[in-house]
Amino acid sequence: MYGVNLSSSESQRAIVSLNVLFNGMPKTSGCEKCVEINGENAFWCCKSQSPSMYYVEFLNVYQEVRKWNKENRQALLFRSIRNYLDNSISKGCIFYVDGCLCYNQRPQICRNYGVIPQENWEKRWESLKDHLGDKFNSRPQCNLVTSDIPISAKMEDKWFEHTRKCEERLGVPSDQIKLHDEDGGSYRTFHDHLLLEMFDNARSSVGASLNEDFLSRLTKIKLSNPTKDEIELFIGKLSEETVPS
User: How far apart are CA 211 and CA 18, in angstroms?
Assistant: First the structure.
């Protein structure tokens, strides 16, 4: 993806550098109170939001996914396809299934959520409003989460810049990094990253119906604005086909 050579030593150093950052960030707590406080609405953040991240952050997670068994990888793929085809604004994270499946490798946005400094939160809030227009219906940060030390806007900006530099070190072209979450950018949702990664690497090994044209096939379905029932019908048919693992 993005012309990155994942077998190079420099790409692996980029992921190591990312984890050095993550391991040095302040620890957070509060999620353990969610069920007690919110009951059936517990973990609404993971159930209704689909986080975005740089490619290097995704690869940090994907290294672990590749260790999963085929059944779990296929289930993750189907959740990714559901999210991609679903045109609604509010849709959950593909890694949340009765708990976070990638908690130790979770991206920076998940690590900061709940403790993002108000100054930075308001900037993102306004950016979302401008981007989504009438579709904007975002909730404020969870007030249960706290960190062991106060987090300033300067600290969070510094962490984000470190992650961006890891993306550069990985080998992602600067013009794609600058696009951020626009079309062609390397800052994408979990499901976008995973679909691109799995089908880019599987082109020569899957059946005719799941070759390099599969992502185009998905896009055509997405543009038809399918209902949830239509999406599930497609997933059901897909489960009978050969899928990359």
Answer: 33
Give the contacts of 155 (CB within 8 A, at least 6 positions apart).
117
Closest CA to 52 of 150, 145, 167: 167
Query: Residues 167, 21: contact at Cβ < 8 Å?
Result: no
Q: For residues 95 and 102, give the distance between their C-alpha atoms in angstroms, rounded to a whole number.
A: 7
28: β partners: 147
DSSP-derived 3-state class of residue 136: coil
pLDDT tens string 65-94: 999 999 999 999 999 999 999 988 788 999
Q: What single DSSP character describes residue 87?
A: -
From the centroid of its chain, how far is CA 94?
Answer: 8
Predicted TM-score of the model (pTM) = 0.89
Instruction: Please answer whether residues 59 and 196 qualify as being in contact, where contact means their C-beta atoms are separated by less than 8 angstroms.
Output: no
* Lookup: tokens for 224: 């038809």
DSSP state of 52: E
